[in-house]
Each structure stands twice: as C-alpha cells, then as structure tokens.
Amino acid sequence: MDFVYDDGGRAAAGYKGTAGDCVCRSIAIVSGKPYAEVYRELNELAASERPQCGERSSSRTGVFKPLRNEYLKRLGFVWTPTMKIGSGCKVHLKTGELPAGRIIVSVSRHLTAVVDGVIHDTFDPSRGGKRCVYGYWRKVA
C-alpha cells in the first residue's frame, strides 16, 4: 500500500514536537475538518469523560476508545468491523483489501487515515502489508 506523509495539519496549526495524536490526525485528514478544531473538540469531550485508570483522554497523548467512538458517531461516521473475536485476521493494511474512499482504519494501538488506497500518516503503519485491520470508520452521506 502506498504511503504519504501527512500530519493532518498539525504543523500548520502551530503545534510543535511529536505527539501520540493519531486519533486527532486521522479524523482531521479523513473528515477535512481543521486539525485545531478536532483537537479542541476532542479535549472538550474529554473534560466530561470519566477517568480511566486515573487518566482522561487527550488529543495530544491519546484518546480512549469510548470517547473516540462517540466523537466519530457525532460526525456521522459508521463503524465496519473486519475482524471478530476468534476469527483471525481477514483484512490487512494492504492494497486491495480495503474499500476505496476516505476511511479511518483501526489497527493495533493506532488509527490511520486511508484515502483511496493510500495511507496518510506520519509513518507507514502497514508492516509491509501484514498489519491486521480490526475495522474502519467511513462517513455516511
């Protein structure tokens, strides 16, 4: 699968340094919303979140799955699972195994944006086409 370096607008929004912001970045890339707006909205939602293990979600350091799912649903995204418990890996982050269009793909401990079969991220998470895909988010019309 081809790869394009894309920070989702993080640097252009004035943010510096590295961050564990894959949720914010992939949502900005696929939705077309400005990075700073997604960053702010995720942190606003996190302020009312019940802490997990003493921590709340953060756009910069990581967003817990329930908050991420709630935010994506609010934006009109729908989840399509590609793997079930005990089924083994059927779909990989590989050319031809994901649908065309703009999708947010969930892999182990990471979200990445895929636009028409091309990974848009700050690194290539495909592991040479062997990375298992748990499912993907797609915006419904």
Query: Helix share of residues?
Result: 10-25%
Number of structural units classed as domains: 1
CATH class: Alpha Beta
Order of strands side by side in the largest beta sheet? 1-5-4-3-6-2
Which residue ranges are poorly predicted, with pLDDT under 50 across at least 5 consecutive positions?
Answer: none
Estimated structural class: alpha+beta
Gyration radius, in Å: 15 Å
Strand content of the residues, in percent?
15-25%
Please summarize what this structure is:
With 141 residues, the chain is α+β, with helices and mostly antiparallel strands. The chain is built from three helices and six strands, in the order E-H-H-H-E-E-E-E-E. 31% of the residues are buried.
General description of the model:
By secondary structure, this protein is an alpha+beta fold. It is built from three helices and six strands. The protein has helices at residues 22-31, 35-47, 65-74; strands at 2-5, 77-81, 102-107, 110-115, 118-121, 135-139. It has a six-stranded mixed beta sheet with strand order 1-5-4-3-6-2. The model has no long low-confidence stretch (mean pLDDT 95).
